Amino acid sequence: FEVYKTVTEKMKEPAIVYEAENVWKTVAVISGAEAVFSSSLHVRIMAFIYLKPRVTWCPRTGSKHDNFINLWDAPNMRVCGEVNTTWSILNQYWGETPAITQDETFVYYKKAVSDYMDSFRKWGKLLDESNKVKQYIK
By the 8 A CB rule, do 44 and 81 touch? Predict the structure, then answer.
């Protein structure tokens, strides 16, 4: 958590370094946050779901973070950052004409939900068919 604390020391506004390991408390904090900084893919996913400005500290290529970001997240959010790039990434969210808006994230969020539900229906149907076959094998 030292890296997070270092970043908050440089911030002008109050910030929280959340060290709890309770998933529901973490989700609650993310849902109420103005922006989310993390090295955790799961936190990135929750920030995406809640349409929060997000900076994920991760390797820029080949990491699970990078794979998720490139597959699911909005094109204007497709970036893994390093601590020293945090402010320049976050700065794109604010101002009179922000470069990054949550409108595009919402479009990709709806697509992710739709793709997930399609997959769920597809696999659910296959599992249902499999169970029907098992009934006749008995």
Answer: no
